[in-house]
Every structure is written in C-alpha cells, then in structure tokens.
Amino acid sequence: MDSILNFIKLEESDGMLLYWLKEILVAVLVFAFFYALARLLRYILITLGPRFTSFTKTDLDDRILLRITPPASFLVVCAGLYYAVRTLPLPEKAHLLASGLLFIIIVVILTNIAYRVTDELLNWYASRLSEQVSNGLNRQLIPLVEKLISIFLIGTALIITLKHFNYDILSLVTALGIGSLAIGMAAKDTLANMISGFTLMIDRPFRIGDRIQLTGGQLGDVIDIGLRSTKIKTMDNTFLIIPNSELCNTILINMAFPDVRAKGRINLGVAYGSDIEAVKKLLVETAMEIPDVLRDPAPEGYFVSFGESALNMALFFWVENYTNVFSATDRINSLIVKRFQENGINIPYPTRTVLVEKD
Question: Phi and psi (nearest 5°) for 173?
Fold first, then answer.
C-alpha cells in the first residue's frame, strides 16, 4: 500500500506522461472504490434487504426494493464517475461540462427512483382498493394520478437542473404562471370539463359498465369516463358523448347501484267482476314460472285502482341483473296472456257508452 501511495504522489520531477498516468490512476482508484460500493449496495438491497422486509405484513417494501435496486446502484457508479472526473487536472471548461453532464444524469436517476417508488405505492393502493370495492376506479383515477406525479417530478427535476446552472427560476415560474392564466381564460370550458371529470372519478356517482338514465330519458351503459367527456352506449347501439360539466350538474338514475338487481313492473287491467285475489295469485304464479325472476324477493301482485273499463292490476318482480328486465317482462307478458285464457280471465278493451237523446 505504501508503494502505491508513493507511486501516485505527484512530484515536480515527474514527466508529463508519468504525471497523467498518476492522475488517471487516482481517478481509476476513485471510480473503482465507488464501483465496489455500488456492488456492495446491490448485494445489501438484494440479499439482506428482504430479510428485514420479511417482518412486515405487506409485500410493498419488497417490491420497492426490487424496483429501486438497479437505479440506486447505477447512481453510486455515476457519483464515482463524477468524483473521478473532479480529480483529473482538466481545464475549467472541461470540468464544468463533464460535471454538468454527470449532474444531469444523477438528477435523471433520482427522478427515476422517485417515480418507481410512487408507481409501486399507487399500484399497491389500487390493488387494495379493488379488493375492498369492486369498481373501475383504479382504471380511471390511477393513470391520471400517475400522469400528474410524472409531470411534477419532471418539473422538479427541470427546476433543480436549471438552478444548478444558475438560471433565473423566478422568471421562468412567472412566465409559466402568466401563460397558465392565459390558457385558463381561453380554455375555461375545457378546464371546467376536466375538473368535472376529476370530480366524477372521485365522487363516483356511476362507474364504467353501469347503466344510467338521464333526465332527458336517454338510457345506456357507461363505456368510458374521460377528462373532458363521458361516453355512454345507448340501447340502439349508438354512442352518447356528454361533457363532464353537464353530468356533474344534472340528475341521473344509476340502475347498477347499490347492486345490479333490478325491479320490473307490469301494468294490466282485468274485467269488472273478476276475482281479484285469484288474479293476484295467478300473476305471482305466472312470474314464478320464469327462470330469470328471483324467488327472494318474491313477485308481488297488487290491485292498483279502478279504471274506466277495467280493474287496474300491477305485478312487481325482481331479476338478478338489470339487463334481464326487458327479456323477463316479455316472457311474463306472453305467459300471462296464456294463463288468463286458460282460467277465463278477460282483459277488456277500452269502451265508451254514448247516449243519444232525440227531441
């Protein structure tokens, strides 16, 4: 060791070639030290790290260690390269250029590490959210949050880099603020729709796949909830695209909430003089013959009102999924006609009696 130190010690009698050889040797030794340090760090994170993270109940820390190990070890190598270049007797401009380039690389690596950590945190949170609540929130909100975090990290890295090179950050921030104000004034409707879209993702009045009915009577399934608009596929296989700001300020019916079960209703009239209890019993028995109709809650028949030419009845039934309401209603109606004919129950036509008086 003493012989190595004596060799690399600079003396005035050294020639130019020997002088540079010693300088390069010092730089190589500095880089080798940091390279060995990087290998040691990688060994600790891969081998010893899981032993400590095994004491936790979640695998989040294991996944974070696995994601940050490559860039963390590469960061130590770049730091070694940075200090190795600093030891070389290069011109001041060369030092500034090399140091600046390495500084940018280190900032990029640190930004990448921060992104990987936040990405694992978001994925872990999305998985826990999907286990607790079965909805498509993670499909809508998590990509948006990832984009916002990416923009924030890139902006922070850019500001740190510009600050390192002595650029005026205040003027840049002021220019960005004025530009954002001008863009906000020019695109206020777009911004209102984007904020409303974010509100829909957080408040969740409906989810992707839910069937909703608007105040205008439009009925359809939610296909996508975007930042600007929401796409709804109607029953006639057309797309209804509605701005999010309108959806946030309107009343709608979500047929898939609190669950996908749906209640159907059939209105009909029977002739005056019919046995009401027998009609109600027959309606319930007819509904129970349809496989799609639930037994719990069971179908119910009611005598609703006295009509002009008929006794108005109503049959209520439940199906497992709201998409089966129309098909179940069709099958029940067809079977009701058959059962009424078999039991002699008439469904009367509307009638009018006209009295003509002559002088």
Answer: -65, -40
Predicted TM-score (pTM) of this structure:
0.52
Percent helix, strand and coil across the chain, each to the nearest 5: 60, 15, 25
Q: SS3 for 243?
A: strand
C-alpha–C-alpha distance, residues 289 and 234, integer Å: 30
The residue type found at 14 is D
For the chain (359 residues), the mean pLDDT of every run of 10, in chain order, is 46 60 81 87 80 73 81 85 79 77 86 87 75 53 75 84 75 66 64 76 81 87 84 89 86 84 92 92 94 92 91 94 90 94 89 78
Per DSSP, the residues of 118-131 read HHHHHHHHHHHHHH
For residue 303, CA distances in Å to 308, 316, 325, 348 come to: 15, 12, 22, 16
d(CA 50, CA 345): 77
Whether 193 and 228 have beta carbons less than 8 Å apart is answered as: yes
CA 144 to chain centre: 7
Task: Identify the three-state secondary structure at position 296.
Answer: coil
**What are the backbone dihedrals phi and psi of residue 259, each rounded to the nearest 5 degrees, phi first?**
-145, 175
Task: For residue 350, give both structure tokens.
Answer: 């509307």
Alpha-carbon distance of 323 to 143, in angstroms, equals 30
